[in-house]
Amino acid sequence: MALERVKIIKANNEEPDEMEKQVSQALLDLEVNSDLKASLRELHITAVKEVDCPGNKKAIVIFVPVPQLKAFQKIQARLVRELEKKFSGKHVVFIAQRRILPKPTRKANKLKQKRPRSRTLTAVHNAILDDLVYPAEIVGKRIRIRLDGTRLFKVHLDKTQQTNLEHKTDTFASVYKKLTGKEVNFEFPEPYL
Prior knowledge:
alpha/beta; 35% helix; three-stranded mixed beta sheet; 193 residues; 7 helices
């Protein structure tokens, strides 16, 4: 019991739930048994969420601390492959645990620091999108506003990563919808000069 707590550090010392314990244990096993030991030793996660995807699939969203995101991304391809083997049939996604600060009002603004741009809703939602599609890069975005006023975000991804990510785009869309409430559509357009 105490061992699996090593890999998950929750805010306010909350007790991890069943899914978080499983992922934490899987990361611990990988650290002990694989050649990722050196890379995984310093890393931990903050939360795990399970998201329903189209086609009766589930995705596991693993939240990591923002300062450790770069380290996770260095080993992300192998880590995702190993974790997807362990949790068969589920896609695994790593996202940094970011905070959105409320928009400063006239009353609350006295004596407080200015809100950093990275804590705004838009910045956090864009950063979540970047984390979601890693290792692919976003090469363009379009917003389609339908006649009834709803918005559809079209995200253009790097064509070179199409073979690796094409089967996961539905998962990305449903995870993004669950986290932000925004509809998003992923495309791999031909690069034009």
